[in-house]
Write a structure and sequence with these properties.
Length: about 130
């Protein structure tokens, strides 16, 4: 029986090793996919607006108030770039870019601010 139990134990160890390898590959593939898909930029939907910040290695999003689009305050930060949507007003790094239309896409690309793919100039500094 010792030979048979050694074979079962060996088989169990091999099965465990294969399972562990699959988990490791899946985990690495997930990380790699995430890195490739979101490489160098952060992206999220904030109050109905797709917001993208480039470059970005890690982003944080904060909802400070969300009663309605007219009474909301959201913040997304990536490195030195901070995007705030306050009652539909777009503020990037303490500079106002005016009110956003419903569903407008916002991109901050190396300091350039684009709304619906059109570069936008600041309206006022805060």
């Amino acid at each position: 029986m010792t030979g048979l139990s050694n074979i079962k134990r060996s088989s169990s160890i091999k099965s465990f090793a294969v399972l562990l390898s699959f988990c490791f590959v899946a985990l690495c593939a997930g990380c790699h996919h995430s890195t490739m898909t979101f490489a160098n930029h952060g992206q999220d939907v904030i109050n109905g607006h797709r917001v993208t910040i480039t470059p970005c290695l890690h982003s944080t999003n904060t909802t400070l108030r969300d009663k309605s689009p007219e009474d909301s305050l959201h913040s997304m930060k990536c490195g030195e770039t901070e995007v705030v949507i306050n009652n539909e007003e777009l503020v990037v790094n303490s500079k106002s870019y005016g009110k956003l239309k419903a569903g407008a896409a916002v991109a901050v690309d190396n300091g350039r601010v684009l709304i619906d793919s059109t570069e936008t100039k600041e309206v006022a500094s805060r």
